Amino acid sequence: MLVLALGIDYALLTVSRFREALDDGRDAAAAAADAARHAGRTVALSGAPVAVASLALLIAPLNELRSAAIGGLLVVVVSVLLAATLLPALLSWLGQRVDAGRIRAGLRLAPNPERYRRWARTVVAHPWLVLAVTAPPLLLLAAQAPRLNARIPRGQWLPPRMESTQAGRDLKAMGRSGALQALRVVLEFPEDVTALTTEGWTATARASAAFAADPRVARVQSLRTLAGDRADDLAYVSLMPAAAKRPFLSEEGDAALLEVVPRETSDPAALTAFVRELRARDPVSLTGLPGARLRIGGLPAFAADYEDAVGGRFGRIFAIVVAGTLLTLFLGFRSVLVPIKAVLLNLLSVSAAFGALVVVFQDGYGVGLLGLEGPVDGVFPIVPVLVFCTVFGLSMDYEVFLVARVAEARRVGADDADAIAEGLARTGGVITSAALVMIAVFGAFTLGDFILVKMLGFALAVAVLLDATVIRIAMGPALLRLAGRWNWWPGG
């Protein structure tokens, strides 16, 4: 997704500058040099926030997020280098042939520059009206974002044709689906105690009884379960076959396994909370054995660890991405207000995407159009952090494309209104075309059967749609107009 999105974004900007130079009467070599000089700087500046967002993912101690971070960084570096080196060289070689097979102007799908210029003049003439019309719907959608439930959804969220999903349905029909959510509790004994000593065996019995007493638990399986009526006869248990003891005792006997099977009606979220409760309890009070320790695994424990690993670091990821973006744009534009505006608009775009996730996936409005039978009760913990970093980086492309052209027009003497109109006229078509490609790429991911991929594709497509239309074509220019010359303070 990133390769297609960034590569096409940067290529469109570079080709657009090349065509402008050709239209001004320059030869192919000079036009390619002009495109490399102007578009190359803009591409490098827009790629920096994407790189920062990718690097921020390294904070999360999850291999999949760290892999995404490294992959995202490589994509950014390669895309910027290709747009700044190989592409201008190819354009210089192609020359006028770059327009071979071009669709006639009357058949173009994208509005022409003059339409964008006329729209920009309307925006700069009525900035408050534009904000009054465009901001409320986005803010209303963004207001749903706090309801985002970042947890692994209950039920079967894998594709229905998969064997594991079919087995889960069979287990549920048999009344045995609780086995899928079993907690695997390892009781570790102190150095002078083993599982088959009186102290260790008593500690195991006390822990089993404590777990079984919880209303969320159906049964507890352990070596005591296999021993049956003679579970209190330690001599009998010691003589049980090794094949019976091996699943529940470590080889040295310094640890015992208790499999805590929840009731069929237990909610996955309640089981995740149960894991956190058990981890917070004192093992001595559960077992009556000083020095004992509990290690809790199983699917509910995995869910708790996963949520903590991602959610517990989201604040730091957020801070790094925002601070890195502010610093990058400040150095690029020598402005205080432009970076702040860009970050605030990006946060609005991300929040609106989160709100759309809530409305569609959690509330169920239109979820049938995505091939789902009904709403889901949670959005995977990895979705918010991936969407945030990806959208924050990609949305900054459009901001940099637009503001760079506005700043360029201001440097050659245009006033604020004319500079905004010129910037939007020159970049509006690029932004629209790039957004259409991104929406097509991201939207394609909603067609799969894996709900996680559906959520990612949907959120990214919505964010790009809102960002490239309402935010960058309307709200962004309106805010630039209202700020006037303060946009360029202190750099001038």
H and E order? HHHHHHEHEHHHEHHEHHHHH
Biggest sheet statistics = 4 strands, antiparallel
The first-level CATH class name of the largest domain: Mainly Alpha
Number of domains: 2
Q: What would you call the structural class?
A: mainly alpha
Strand arrangement within the widest β-sheet reads 2-3-1-4
Tell me the quaternary state: single chain
**CATH fold descriptor of the largest domain:** Multidrug efflux transporter AcrB transmembrane fold
CATH H-level superfamily of the largest domain: Multidrug efflux transporter AcrB transmembrane domain
How would you describe this protein?
The protein has 492 residues and is mainly alpha-helical. The chain has two domains: 2-156 and 310-488, Multidrug efflux transporter AcrB transmembrane domain (Multidrug efflux transporter AcrB transmembrane fold); 163-302, 2-Layer Sandwich (Alpha-Beta Plaits). It is 66% helix and 5% strand. It is built from 17 helices and four strands. The protein has a four-stranded antiparallel sheet.
